[in-house]
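Morning!

This is the sequence you dropped in the shared folder:
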Amino acid sequence: MFKDLLNKLLQPVPSTLAPKDARLALTALLVRIARSDHNYADVEQDRIDRITASRYGLGIGEAILLREQAEAMEAEAPDTVRFTRAIKESVAYEDRIGVIEALWQVALADGERDDSEDAILRLSANLLGVSDIDSAKARRRMEKAL
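The structure's back. Tokens below.
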């Protein structure tokens, strides 16, 4: 089902993703963050649904379906590097800050900071070309918003 998109992500130089593919890749990255602590809580799934519904103008049913597709894709995908590299190629810097904010929302959704979530978030921010300072600012904004 995701073979074409995964092939694009696995290329040495990823091609620009179509908007639907970029949306799926971003949602899969959100799922990866949520699963990284081996506790994929309902509150994290709900947060992913609300983020994608808001970001992409989806109804809740469509957001749940997107998350379910992203869960399947995340399980098949080999590493975080390729998700973030493809997203970086498809998303302007200002919007990548929004990606980092979304990742922080998911990581903070269960009320606990986890080392594995922090590590993937730091890696993702770096691979997206978002500075540590901008990522820290994004985290603080999301902590205040929650």
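Headline: The chain has one domain: 19-145.

More detail when I'm at my desk.
O.
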